[in-house]
Sequence to fold (257 residues):
Amino acid sequence: MKVTPKKHLGQHFLKDETVSQRIAALVQKTGVKNILEIGPGTGALTKELLKYPELNVQVIEIDRESIAFLAINYPDLKVHTEDFLKANLSSIMGNDPFAVVGNFPYNISTQIIFKVLENIDQVEAVVGMFQKEVAARFASGPGSKTYGITSVLAQVYYDAEYHFSVDEDAFIPPPKVKSGVISLIRNKVTSIDCDEKLFQRTVKMSFNQRRKTLRNSLKQLWTEAGLDIEPENELFRKRPEQLSVRDFIELTQHLTV
Fold:
């Protein structure tokens, strides 16, 4: 049966088998055995993942045509017919650690990572395809122009690496942008030494005015914290792209009432 890519679902089916093979190899290399693939479509990546017998592969898909296709072509594959962003992941994967993988729909790719960050106790790794600029953002470090909010929030709990770029002609239909494959591997951080909501707010306010020094962009926060004068910390004299994840945690500690 034929499956038509749907624009409203952000579908661009991967046709380059070499790319699928490289992604599957990266997944296998993480050492995580339980795999949840998001939006498998016609199974281009699924097929390569299933070549690794040690992997327990499940998929989650909302496109009815794709679901029907997978049922015919992969009858033994466990297919969850629900929206990943709304799903209870522990009800799908049980209590075991797992990896989230996929050629992610670009219109929800950042939301997918934020969903992962809500499930850090279970999601041991992410290996996926993103729009190239988004992929670079997640993997960027301090000093880079692409280093920003998503870089810091993801790298609190995950070690990020940009692996390779993919041209438009690797897909049907070709997207209007280039793509990039990254991995996020769970680090050993279980909690940060500050209020997490304040940490997220600090990061977002810092980068929303990234050309300003932090003494200016965060003035509202240190005023709210009851500090009559600027905190005596050199971090406040820097711009956000100069700070590491650890620096942002230290910054948040200084803003805690």
User: Anything to note?
Assistant: The first helix runs from residue 17 to 29. The CA atoms of residues 66 and 74 lie 11 Å apart. The mean pLDDT is 91.
